[in-house]
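Quick check before the chapter quiz. The format below is the same one you will see on the exam, so make sure you can read both the input and the output lines.
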Amino acid sequence: MSTEAKGAVAFQHVFKAFGPKQVLRDVSFQVQPGETLCILGRSGTGKSVTLKLLMALLKPDQGTIQVEQDDIARLNEKGLSKVRRKMGFLFQDAALFDSLTLYENLALPLRRLTEKSEEEINFDIDKALGNVGLRGDQAKMPAALSGGMRKRAGLARALVLEPKILLADEPSSGLDRITASEIDELLLRQKAEHRTTILVVTHDIHGARRVGDRFAVFDQGALVAFGEVGEIERSENETARKLISED
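Here is the expected output.
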């Protein structure tokens, strides 16, 4: 892959190990602006580490990770903060602050990272919660929310700063099929209306095939297949073919 990567996100020859365990081995791929990439693989194959590297919570041992031309491994904290502002994060457990109301959970990043007035913050929160069907639940505590509501609330917080890039770690984990489909719909709408670039780590093949434009399949730390669903189905790699199958 050329070092003149033009994608929204680009991994170039990335290696990452924890002690003797090599978690990622020579991983290269690129995600285009407005594209949804679904990252597939069995547990422990480096999928979540890939997201943590992209968030700069970890640094690669070798290789470069670019977010809109910024090599994030070389940025100082000020530069990283600027890049992170472009990204929203939907964590597997929604990662809401249990001691804060839903409103306060969404207000926190707006107050910390913007100079918006309280009136503007109120508008943004109302809009974000409305987009995920939680407009009337601002005063609720996270403990009062169902699993599906928590996930939608986490998505609203991830999107309240209107990021260019959304990272989602197992967005349908623990949800029934109907609720998982609602999360899929929200991701599809976000991409359609805002041309958001989305990276999704998931074990939900049904949902992945619904929302994904392209797929990255990891096995034992290596990227063993990359492309559209038909390309993965025709891959020479048996693990990739099995993972993309809905059977």
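If your answer matched, good. The chain has a mean pLDDT of 90.
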